[in-house]
Amino acid sequence: MIKRVFDIIFSFFGLILLLPLLLIIALLIKLESKGPLFYLQTRVGRHSKDFKIFKFRTMFVGSDKKGLLTLGDRDPRITKTGYFLRKYKLDELPQLINVFIGNMSFVGPRPEVRKYVNYYSHEDLIVLNAKPGITDYASIMYRDEAELLNEASNPEQFYIENIMPKKIELNKKYINSQGLITDFKIIVKTIQIIIS
After folding, report:
1. What is the dihedral of CA 89, 91, 96, 101, to 10 degrees?
2. How deeply is 88 buried, as exposed, middle or buried, from its count of CB atoms within 10 A (0-12, 13-18, 19+)?
3. pLDDT, tens digit, for every residue of 20-62?
4. In whole angstroms, how far apart are CA 20 and each of 23, 88, 129, 139?
5. Can you point out the beta strands (E) in the chain?
6. What are the residues facing 135 on neighbouring strands?
7. What global pTM score does this model have?
8. Model confidence over 96-109: pLDDT tens digits?
9. β-sheet bridge partners, residue 52
C-alpha cells in the first residue's frame, strides 16, 4: 500500500516536472522520422497478465518485425534521436504513465515479452508475483545488454541461454529482499549509472 502511494505521488509529479523535456523529446522524434510518438509493446505483467508498456519510439516504424532484441547502440534500426534517448534512458520516461495507472512500479522485475516468458521454468514464474518496474537489479547489471548481444554469434540464443537466466535470478533476489529501503537503493544506483 505504501509503495503504491509512493508510485502514484512521484509518477504524477514526475510527469508534471518533466513535461517540458517530454515535449522537446516528442518534437525531436516527430521531426526526424514518420510514425507514432510512442512505441507500445505488449509485456507480461504481474500474475502473468499482459499490458502495454509506454516508450518513446527510438526506431524506424516496423523495425520490431526484424527482431525483438536490440543489437548494440548502433543498430541501424535506431534513429539518431533514438540513439541519444537510449543512451541516457530517456526513452523509458513515458513508463511514468504505466506507474501512475498501476500496471508498473518504479522498482520491480523488468517486464518481458511473452515470447521469452514462455521459456521460464515453473520456479521462475515466481518473478511474476511482483509488479514489474522501470528499474531493477538486472537493469543495473545488464545496462550494456545491447552491446553483449551485438557481440554474440547468435544473439537470441545467447539471450535465452545466458542473459535471461541471470536476470531471473536477480529478479528472485529482489523478490526475497523487496521493501522501500531496497527500492530506494536501486533507484539511487540507477540514477548514478545514468549520470556516470
Report:
1. -140
2. exposed
3. 999 999 999 999 989 999 999 999 999 999 999 999 999 888 7
4. 5, 17, 35, 26
5. 38-44, 50-56, 105-107, 133-135
6. 107
7. 0.88
8. 999 999 999 999 99
9. 42
